[in-house]
Amino acid sequence: MTEAVRAPSLLARLRDRAEEWIYRLNERDHWIFRLYDLGNELWASLVFRGARRRAARIDAPIQGRERAARVRFLGPADLDAFATLLASLDVKYLPPHPRDRAAAARALARRSYVPLGIFTDEGMVGYVLQRFFFPRRIVSGIWMLASTHNAGLGRLAYREQARFADAEGLPNYCTIPLDNAPSIRIALWCGFEVVRTNRRFHVLLRKPPRA
Q1: What is the dotted CATH code of the domain comprising 10-170?
Q2: Distance between CA atoms of 114 and 148, rounded to whole angstroms?
Q3: 1 or 78, which is more confident?
């Protein structure tokens, strides 16, 4: 006899609806989300100041299937390359902020953001973003030019950001839409596991590395 599947608890259903609601507000740049985001930015300036300073030292070589690259922290001097990449992203799912030049400059300056660029000899080909959230956690994501999707660079770059979160002792989450199978594969390869799924996306958490 197979065991009956237990229905989600009321608390779990409320949590799922809240996550979906915040996700939609972010997509619409709603004023409620902007207020929530402002509070989170202020919190990050108090709690994560040291972590962001340490993140600014990230500069790691990675070797893909056919070419090498570097993953490094983005500063004000990278604005031109960053803005060009954001405008060139040709993928279905995009970063959680606008992609014009002014928005790119704001992303580089935000205290709750750790922006990482993926660079090859051809220039900047990808973007990894860690966002610090109340009370002490990271939500991370990665976006690559479609031309690089089979180069093996995305998963290596995403693993680098995961290592930083591990070193900081911070839980590292990501949310991936249900139909985004390539990103699911990258996250699983990097040691994340699905902890829950709602009507729109999976929520994954990086498994603590073994000692």
Answers
A1: 3.40.630.30
A2: 22
A3: 78
> 10-19 contacts: CB < 8 A, separation 24 or more?
12/196, 15/196, 16/196, 16/198, 16/199, 17/198, 19/175, 19/198, 19/203
Pick from 119, 18, 107: nearest CA to 68: 119
pLDDT mean over 30-50: 90
Distance CA 121, CA 75 (A): 19
Return d(Cα 105, Cα 16) in angstroms, integer. Answer: 32
pLDDT attached to residue 106? 96
Q: Which two tokens stand for residue 62?
A: 């990675």
Cβ atoms of residues 65 and 151 within 8 Å: yes
Size of the chain, expressed as the number of residues it contains: 211
Domain boundaries, the chain: 10-170
CA–CA distance, 19 with 173 (Å, rounded to integer): 13
Q: What's the pLDDT at 1?
A: 39
Q: What is the pLDDT of residues 127-175, one digit of tens each?
A: 999 999 988 999 999 999 988 877 789 999 999 999 999 999 999 999 9
The closest alpha carbon to 55, from 121, 132, 123, belongs to 132
pTM above 0.70, yes or no: yes
**How would residue 2 be classed by pLDDT, with cut points 50, 70 and 90?**
very low
